Amino acid sequence: MKTAVYFCNCGTNISDKINPEKVQDAVKKKNGDVIFKTFDFLCSEEGREFLRKDIMDNAVDAVVIPACSPRDHEKTFMNVLSEAEVNPYMMQMVNIREQVAWVTEDAEKAAVKAVQYINAAISRVNLQEPLKKKEIDVSPDAVVVGAGPAGLKAALSLAEAGRKVTVVEKSPTIGGLPVRYEEIFPNMECGPCMLEPIIGEALHGDASGNIEFLTLSEIEDVVGSYGNFNVKIKRSPRYVDTEKCIGCAECIAPCPVSFKNPFNCGINERKAIDFSFAGALPNVPYINAELCLRFKGFNGNENANVVGNANGGAAGGFCRLCVDACPVGEEIFKFDEKEEIIERNAGGIILAVGSALYDCRKVPSLGYGKIPDVYNSLEFERILASNGPTEGNIRTLDEKEPRSFAIVHCAGSLDKNHKGYCSGICCEYAFKFNHIIRNKIPSAKIYHLYKELVVPGKESGSLYSKAAEDKNTVFIRISDINGMAVAEEGGKKVFSINDACVCGSGGGNESRKIESADDRDGENGGKISVDAVILCPAVVPARDIDGLAGMLELVRDRNGFFEELHGRTDAGRSKIKGIYLAGSCHSPMDIKEAMSEGMAAAGYVLSGLVAGKKLSIDPISAVVEQARCSGCKVCIGVCPYKAISFDEEKGASFVNELLCQGCGTCAAACPSSAVKANGFTDAEIFSEIGIMLA
Amino acid sequence: MQNSSAIKENMPDNAVNIGNAKKTEVFEPRIIGFLCNWCSYAGADKAGAAQKQYSPNVSVIRVMCSGRIDPQFIMDAFQKGADGVMILACHPGDCHYKEGNYRAVQRHRLLLRLLGQLGIEGERCRFDYVSAGESDRFVSVINETVEAVKKLGPLKIK
Which of A104, A685, A693 sits opposite B53 (nearest CB)? Predict the structure, then answer.
């Protein structure tokens, strides 16, 4: 094997400290037939041309380049090798600039070290093998999980680029949380109106042919890897034909069964056949099989008979009140519909499953779940919504208009006993609530109890200013939410705020102190009485994350959200290749951010998975020499990417090169030395150690 | 750098003969440093870019991840005459490959027990975390290790 050393002077950066001639003599002395040449700037155009020509002229097989860090120019020189028709992996850079010349005071010692490094590299490069990039076919299509703002935006962007997208949504409707909101911060836009054009485009627009919506569906299993996932989706029956139903709602009133409507946070009731809310899309009701008498009637028939008789709608047998009311006909109802497993192939999976609110019962002093008229923000959104349980009228449970409100920010946030982070959206919607309450009940007294106020962004200031300038709005800064106690006294919700939990009032603004004169005990601390309490809880991971994280073996951060590949530079990627994150499933965020993230996730799919273009696989990966494998499976346990599987037939492990990232942990763990870490083999490293210590 | 003048006086004319280090009066330890590509190797590059001078006694071997560092490499280094070995990894939670640094620290802890049984002092096998930005930390970890091994003297495996 003909080996050449191309020593880069890097102008004088290297040669000022390390004398190339001395190094050449020493290297040649040890490795007789090696070619040794120096050049001023190997990375320059002339340098690369010199390198290419010299490699070709001398029919060089392996190249050692003492120069800068491989982190700078390894790729540059690998490309030159390719141009010179030498395998680019037959090269070893020697970092004599950053790690020798620039950091070693003594020139002679620097030269000694440089020679030692170069000798080690020569020895190593002779053991290196030509490696080849592999290419595989990929699917350009995607599965999007979650049909909220992030998922919809991702799906629509991909569909518009001609990709096939399957959107998997566990609820019966699409749109996510914002369709529940009457108005949205920062500019009081109507939530459903904002989303409807996007949903409409996805359902009926030019690109809608590329989008398949599977509602009442969840991911059941995922096999395969980046570029070629096989996704199994479990679809629960809706029992109503989405194609034929005209959405007239005639079936709903006759239904004899009611239950608490989860869409409205259980504040009102819905029927066993019903829409989630007026205006839900797709505009088709669904049947709750656990409650529908029809389903109970299949076993024993007693209930169905009783109800049938009582209502006179069903003459014995199964309840069919909804069927009889339907103007389209019986064929719409598919009571025999079964749970279905649907399989889709996709190159990438976008997770946009959203988030949930922290359970305020975990902050018992706030009275949530015990004292009436203590709401979390999602419940209050439904109270404000004109299609909600109170048709947008703010009423206490005893049907009175509340005269005073406490809006508790940071409920469970910025608190080491609960959630240590700030969710970043609560203050903004709290001031939105302030604005809506003020419009609906002009004389209402509103208290904001908060730990910190956070209103970032160019548009958020106006809602905050409105609240801050409002005479009947009071700001009270609390140091510890656990120190407050909410009790019910004569129909009022009374907050006892002790000295310890009131922070200094801000900037001499009188309105920022407790000024409910009748209840006030002192300058700091005291009591405030209100009719209704709205808690703004920390945004936490949705429960669905558990199942998905387990199934996809995704890493979760310490707060339980999906962990990003990199929190800033690659926040849209999970740590599993080909699985992307969009929206609040990986961090609390507002609608604007979620939409941008949906777009970003689509971007990853569009740039990484191009139809007709093959995926190239970096050969710096692990390979199991199956003849040496004892089948102990230690490697499988240590692989951070689940890239290693076990071939039962051969009784040996094997590596999926596509998933392998080339870290080499398996090679270090294998007790039989059966795993070869390409580019960093045992032999290569042992030879480096040996020469460096020679 | 300490003792540099003393070393110079004792250096033979042919400075490129490294095997002579042990023959000089001042003990110059030979240490192999295994650095992960993404954090500690990058930290070393950063120290270079800032031209921070440090002891030349550590010879660096780059691996993609500290999880690649097979305990056999360390045993091999000691056997071939290293007076010390360093393993530098990404900080917990920063590993480019998610958890390679945890494997590395686990293996290091086990290895320390074995080294103890062989009479090799734990200070000769240092594990530490250096991020891509911590050039000062890299320099101090290198210098500290070199000093510690200097104090222990040359390694003599019984």
Answer: A104
What percentage of chain B carries pLDDT values higher than 70?
84
Report residue A473's pLDDT band, with 50, 70 and 90 as the boundaries.
very high
Which residue has tokens 């051969």? A650
Distances in Å between the Cα of A59 and the Cα atoms of A203, A445, A665 are 62, 87, 36
β-partners of residue A105 are: none
DSSP state of A30: H
- Can you tell me the distance from the alpha carbon of A386 to that of A278, in angstroms, rounded to the nearest whole number? 10
State residue A454's pLDDT score.
94
Distance of CA A153 to the CA centre of its chain: 14
Q: Is the pLDDT of residue A109 over 90?
A: yes
Residues 6+ apart with CB under 8 A from A31: A3, A119, A122
Compute the nearest-CA separation of A102 from chain B (Å): 5
> Residue A509: pLDDT above 70?
no
In sequence order, the 6+-apart residues with CB closer than 8 A to the CB of A643 are A622, A655, A656, A657, A658, A659, A660, A661
Please give the Cα distance from A648 to A631 (Å, whole number): 9
Cross-chain Cβ contact A102/B80 below 8 Å = no
Please tell me if residue B150 touches chain A, with a CB cutoff of 8 Å: no
What is the average per-residue pLDDT within A527-531? 91
Q: Hey, which residues does B59 pair with through a beta bridge?
A: B32
**For A643, phi and psi rounded to 5 degrees?**
-90, -10
In this prediction, residues A182-199 reach a mean pLDDT of: 90
Do the Cβ atoms of B69 and B128 come closer than 8 Å? Answer: no
pLDDT of residue A441: 96
pLDDT for position A640: 85
Instruction: Tell me the chain B residues in contact with residue A692 when contact means C-beta distances shorter than 8 Å.
Output: 32, 59, 61
Residue-averaged pLDDT of chain B: 87
| pLDDT above 80 (res A670) | yes
Structure confidence at residue A94 as a pLDDT band (50, 70, 90): very high
B38, closest residue in chain A (CA to CA): A71
* CB neighbours of residue B120 within 10 Å: 24
**0.80 surpassed by pTM:** no
Pseudo-torsion of CA A597, A601, A602, A608, nearest 10°? 150
Paired sense of beta strands A570-574 and A485-489, if any: unpaired
CA-wise closest residue to A318 among A338, A332, A333 = A333
Span A5-33, pLDDT tens digits: 999 999 999 999 999 999 999 999 999 88
C-alpha Rg value of chain A to the nearest Å: 33
d(CA B70, CA A674): 13
Which residues in chain B have Cβ-Cβ distances shorter than 8 Å to A671? none
Whether A103 and B51 lie within 8 Å, measured CB to CB: yes
- Closest Cβ opposite residue B53 in set A105, A668, A686: A105
Neighboring chain B residues of A117 at a CB cutoff of 8 Å: 59
Instruction: Say what angle helices A149-160 and A191-204 make with each other, to 10 degrees.
Output: 30
B69: nearest CA in chain A?
A: A668
CB A652, CB A597: distance < 8 Å? no
Percent of chain A exceeding pLDDT 70 equals: 93
Residue A683 has pLDDT above 60, yes or no: yes
Beta bridge partners of B85: B32, B125
Least confident segment among A19-28, A83-92, A302-311, A321-330: A302-311
Chain A contact for B105 (CB, 8 A cutoff): no
DSSP state of B61: E
- Spatial strand order in the sheet of A340-346: A217-225, A228-235, A340-346
Instruction: Find chain A residues with C-beta within 8 A of B54's C-beta.
Output: 103
Q: Which residues of A touch B96 (CB under 8 A)?
A: 663
